[in-house]
Each structure stands twice: as C-alpha cells, then as structure tokens.
From TrEMBL:
Domain of life, per lineage: Eukaryota
Stretches for region Disordered: 16-41
Protein name as catalogued: Uncharacterized protein
Organism: Stegodyphus mimosarum
Amino acid sequence: MLHSGMIILSGYQHLVKMRKKKKKKKKIKKKKKKKKKKLLR
C-alpha cells in the first residue's frame, strides 16, 4: 500500500515539476523576444 502510494506521489511531483518547467520556458521565451526587440531598436 505504502509503495504504490509513493509511486503515485512521485508521479504527481514529476508532473508538477514538468508544468513548472514549461511555465518557466514560456517566461524565458518572452524575455528573449523583448531582448530581440531592444536589439532591433
């Protein structure tokens, strides 16, 4: 019982980490776009 619960928790934590990474990547992409606009100016 405990073992299956740990696997579910680790799987959930992995999904949360992936979602956080995706959000961070989107923010980084936006920052890069802003930098490109400044370089063009």
